[in-house]
Design brief:
By secondary structure, this protein is α/β, with parallel strands linked by helices. The chain has eight helices and 15 strands.
């Protein structure tokens, strides 16, 4: 069997270092990277496509459950949750037969969890695991929607408030944020980003575009059912015929 490619996600540097050391010591595993926050984890999972993720539950802004929601349980790789004894999460993990380790974890506890993950991969049980993960996420309380996002500009990391975004367009496997006169590219797919946005504030108008409801001033039809939404600054964003009813419904609620 090929080595399992492992991604580590934890906002505590010491925890990441401990997890990485044990992964690297296992000849059946391949360490492929580390992430210190949920947004970076989403980017890494979508680009690196790991076989296994060691995922911290409690992280600021986007927690471990938010990462799974963004990726989608059906597309999420197998997960070993890393948690600081959150009572609800522990019970939910047990009910849905999902693996977890509790901080501070011992080498033996992590080794046991990794051994189970390798056994599941060898036995071809990944589909059943994805189904359990889907039921698990569906039973969780809804996390607060994303309120800000980090973007890399040259050598700097800039914080963009979600409410300041005018619209978002797909850019290959990334998303381009249009914020006033500035554009920023984040390495997160449009679909993943949509699942983190408040649907009362943002609406998908096309498979390649999401628009801030507060910026829409007009809907224009081209006579075929397709059309455009016009934003306050004059920007025109293509709207698919299949999305028009949903856009009008959400706009009606916002009025």
């Amino acid at each position: 069997m090929n080595r399992l490619r492992v991604l580590i996600v934890d906002d505590e540097p010491l925890a990441r270092a401990g997890l990485a050391a044990l992964v690297r010591a296992d000849a059946e595993l391949e360490w492929i990277g580390e992430c210190g926050d949920g947004q970076a984890a989403i980017e890494a999972i979508e680009s690196l496509k790991p076989d296994l993720v060691l995922l911290d539950v409690q992280m600021p802004e986007i927690d471990g459950f938010g990462v799974i929601r963004a990726i989608g349980p059906e597309r999420m790789p197998p997960v070993i949750f890393v948690t600081a004894h959150e009572a609800f999460a522990l019970q939910a993990f047990r009910v849905h037969a999902l693996d977890y380790i509790v901080k501070p974890f011992s080498d033996a506890a992590l080794a046991d969890a990794l051994a189970r993950a390798k056994r599941i991969a060898r036995d071809g049980q990944l589909q059943q695991l994805a189904e359990r993960l889907g039921r698990f996420v569906g039973a969780l309380p809804r996390q607060e929607y994303l309120s800000r996002i980090t973007v890399r500009v040259a050598q700097r990391v800039q914080i963009v408030r979600i409410a300041e975004i005018d619209w978002i367009e797909a850019a290959d496997y990334c998303a381009k944020l249009h914020v006033g006169t500035s554009d920023y590219v984040v390495r997160v797919s449009l679909g993943a980003l949509e699942r983190l946005l408040d649907p009362a504030s943002f609406v998908r108008v096309h498979r390649s575009a999401i628009v801030n409801l507060e910026r829409i001033t007009e809907i224009v039809s081209d006579g075929t059912g397709d059309g455009e939404v016009v934003l306050g600054d004059g920007t025109r964003v293509r709207m698919a015929r299949s999305r028009r009813a949903a856009v009008e419904r959400v706009l009606g609620k916002a009025l």
